[in-house]
Structure formats: C-alpha cells, structure tokens
Amino acid sequence: QVQLVESGGGLVQPGGSLRLSCAASGSIFSVNAMRWYRQAPGKEREWVAGISDSGISNYADSVKGRFTISRDAAKNTVYVQMDSLKPEDTAVYYCNAYVLSTGRAYLDVWGQGTLVTVSS
C-alpha cells in the first residue's frame, strides 16, 4: 500500500557528484524519519544518512562533509546530494522511511535500490 521509489543512480568518475531522489506514494497519512542506506557487493548493508520529521540530519562518518540529505515534505520525497564521490562509495543505495498509513499503521518501508558506481 506504500511504496518508495529511488532514482538518480548511475556511473560517475571519482570526484564527481550525483543526486539521488526517493519518493513515497500510496496510502500515506504522514512520513516520519527518512534514511539512506547502501550495500556494496559482498558487504553488509550500512546506514548512510537520515533526516527527522523536524529536519535534523545525521550522517555516517564515511560521508560527512560530502553528502547532504534533504526532504520535501509536501512531495513526500527525500534527496541525498553526493559530492566528491570516491570508489568506495560504489554500492546499491536504498531509501527507507517510517510511514504512518491512512489506516493508522506504522510501516517500515524500503525502496528497490538504485546503483551508484564510482569509477574512472
């Protein structure tokens, strides 16, 4: 009933930039915290960044100063601007959100993922 769809991934050179988007849709009453995770091949999924319903953001140490998370509450959309990308940023990036549905249920929703490849 609630879906998250990521977009914006692709191939970029080291030092380049990408902007990822994640839009929530469906039977939504409100979207609370939104987060980005990533998973590289052969590695566990790790948290990258998050933003609260009040707009407070937090980042993993590995991306501080390079990534910026933001949200557009009216569009139920979260973004991450990724600058100064490094090869070690290569991963599938997933959007995650805690959503209050119109049926008053709290849902932990994940997107399908979008691949970011940082390579020369």
What does the main sheet amount to? 7 strands, mixed
Unreliable stretches, pLDDT < 50, 5 or more residues? Answer: none
Radius of gyration: 14 Å
What gross morphology would you assign? Answer: elongated
Describe the structure.
This protein is mainly beta and 120 residues long. It contains no helices and 11 strands. The protein has strands at 2-7, 10-12, 18-26, 28-39, 46-51, 57-59, 67-72, 77-82, 91-101, 106-110, 114-118. The strands form 2 sheets. Strands 2, 4, 5, 6, 9, 10 and 11 form a 7-stranded mixed beta sheet that branches. It has a 4-stranded antiparallel beta sheet with strand order 1-3-8-7, with no helix packed on it. A hairpin with a 5-residue loop joins strand 5 (46-51) and strand 6. The radius of gyration is 14 Å and the shape is elongated. The mean pLDDT is 96.
Could you give a quick summary of the protein structure above?
About 0% of the residues lie in helices and about 60% in strands.
Overview features:
single chain, 120 residues, mainly beta, 7-stranded mixed β-sheet, 4-stranded antiparallel β-sheet, 0% helix
